[in-house]
């Protein structure tokens, strides 16, 4: 089952209200990442917002693996060479893998230099694909923590607030996550096999088509201009096309987020109806988190008008 690479294709795969669920489907390797995307918007963000790429020391090996996995990512040069040539601790003995091309200074690069190199590699990897990249590594207790990310297009969250945290605290703003979903997500992360890619989709109704969605105003202000008459042009469906895969060498999990945005009037009548039904069906806590009280009535009335008069489609 394919997820697709557009809002129209992703909406049927998204949760339509009710209890939280992962809603995973298998994704083929050749359908893993968005093809043919315009990368200029991502390049602009990475140039202007250096803090949107961060790496903790425990993610260093996983970043190397991601850089090697993505064909568009340039080699990490000296930092990658350092990892291949550095001493390995095995059973208390130091085993030099013996790469004469690696200079001694590279093999003993200070921690900050290694992290700077990992940040550069993460930025390069994420600059070559449409998706944002998040790396989650298991700690000593088996809890997966967000230890590296290149987050150009966030949906109302800041990397600095999530970095280093485990899955349940990361998802704390989602009402019902701890009770309904946390144990299933933890089990999935613990058992995910390296030869499998899984995907899911999430959706939001927003009042902006910005790729980087970090609203600062109150929701009552943000949606004040939206009416049933103009909702087709002023409300947008923002879908996150998410995938998860195990990195076999580091055993970290790579989580990708591809953003797709369309105004309601660019979607089919059936897709608009499903979005309206989904908004009506989400729980009260999620209703407020998604700012639905400030646009739900206009969305419902617009969907009803579209259903009666398909010619409203722009």
How would you summarize the topology of this molecule?
Blueprint: H1 7-10, E1 25-26, H2 40-48, E2 53-55, H3 60-69, H4 78-85, E3 87-90, E4 93-96, H5 104-107, H6 111-127, E5 132-138, E6 144-150, H7 159-162, H8 167-170, H9 177-180, H10 182-191, E7 197-206, H11 219-222, H12 231-234, E8 236-246, E9 253-263, H13 269-281, H14 284-289, H15 296-308
Antiparallel strand pairs: 1-7, 2-6, 3-4, 5-6, 5-9, 7-8, 8-9
Helix pairs in contact: 3-6, 13-15
Structure report:
The protein is an alpha+beta fold. Helix content is 36%, strand content 19%. It contains 15 helices and nine strands. It has helices spanning 7-10, 40-48, 60-69, 78-85, 104-107, 111-127, 159-162, 167-170, 177-180, 182-191, 219-222, 231-234, 269-281, 284-289, 296-308; strands spanning 25-26, 53-55, 87-90, 93-96, 132-138, 144-150, 197-206, 236-246, 253-263. A hairpin with a 2-residue loop joins strand 3 and strand 4. Helix 13 (269-281) runs antiparallel to helix 15 (296-308). The longest helix is centred in the middle third of the chain and has 17 residues, at 111-127. Mean pLDDT is 85; it is low at 73-107.
The SS-based structural class is alpha+beta
Q: Helical proportion?
A: 25-40%
How many helices does DSSP assign? 15
**Backbone shape:** globular
Between the first and last Cα atoms, what is the distance in angstroms?
30 Å
What percentage of the residues does DSSP assign to strands (E)? 15-25%
Number of strands: 9
**Secondary-structure element string:** HEHEHHEEHHEEHHHHEHHEEHHH
User: Main sheet?
Assistant: 7 strands, antiparallel
- Rg value: 22 Å
Which spans of ≥5 residues are poorly predicted at pLDDT below 50? 73-107
Mean pLDDT metric: 85
Q: What topology, given as strand order, has the largest sheet? A: 1-7-8-9-5-6-2
